[in-house]
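BUG-370 | component: ligand-complex export | severity: low

The export step for zinc ion jobs runs without errors, but we want the raw record kept on the ticket for reference. Input record follows.
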Amino acid sequence: MRATFISSPHFAEHSLGEAHPFRPDRTVLLGQLLERQGWLGEAWMSVVEPDEHPLEAWEHSVEAGLIDALQRASRGEVDAFLIARGLGTDECPIFPGVADYVALYCAATMTAVRLVLEQGATLVFNPLGGMHHASRGVAEGFCYVNDVIIAVDALLAAGHRVAVVDIDAHHGNGVQDAYWRDDRVLTVSMHESGETLYPWRGFVGERGEGPGLGFTVNAPLPAGADDEVAITAFDALIDPRVRAFAPTVCVAVVGADTHRTDPLSHLQLTNNGMVALMERIRGYAPQLIMLGCGGYNPQATARAWARMWAAANRIEAVPDHLSMMGGVFLGAQDLEGGDLVDMAWRVTGADKEAMMATVAALVQQAGQPG
Ligand SMILES: [Zn+2]
């Protein structure tokens, strides 16, 4: 095992605006939590700063003009071309240094790729990455440039067989579109159904086209889904497909906006459910890259990511109430909003039955050809 956590003091330097839900500084909270748990200190672990990369380094993975548009936006220019590229909207606001911010998270993701390709890393986590909504040409959904695509393009160029496993609450539309007709990449997304949540897509019938038919897999969860519903859907719709594909590298997009306290989704997972998913994902390929993505309750997101990192490293988290000894609390006690390990929480009764029936119907639909 060779595991690297990517971190930088610059991660917290950028803000999309006071009122914007996307908070890059969650990553600092995560780093502090990992330090305190001792989850960056094992012999097989390292903490690495992103390599220096200018934005132009990604020009081969994005459409002409987008990088230039970002640089002009960063200088405070606004024009119709920028708006047409999704820049300068409420979702993707222009702010001073926006080009530096995008360059930083893309560089952090490419550092993960370099460690996988050149250093034999078995696990690398860039919590600032995972901008799965942007297409190759247009920014959307808080995502300016899609670093998942940049990573996958580089892994493919090196001859890898790549599975992107996206468990963020939102459908990974930008990644799906980039490899829609490509059989070298399996793109898998489990998310809240497009019937109730942006980007209003990601239905079971979306399966790819041409040579890519069957290499796109979607598992839309009903609003309100809890750990059991999510795990049931994942095990039926996703797990066997990824194992059959047998990727050499897995890129996991691990947004924690599935959490029941998240203000932007209507899912109700706990971090126990997210750990259960990570326990499956960690076995999919010899090398795993984790990218942060969404999560709009910063505390819940940091806790979930800490536990997912631990799970990927095969470390067991002990519930904080078990670490009470003689009245002295040894856990993550001063984190706002509770323990590191969430209390179990489940939907019951007719609501649960209805959600399980929805999942069963999806499994049946997915099993039909075409
Ligand atoms: Zn999301």
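Assignee comment: Attached the raw record above. Residues 324-337 have pLDDT under 50 and may be disordered.
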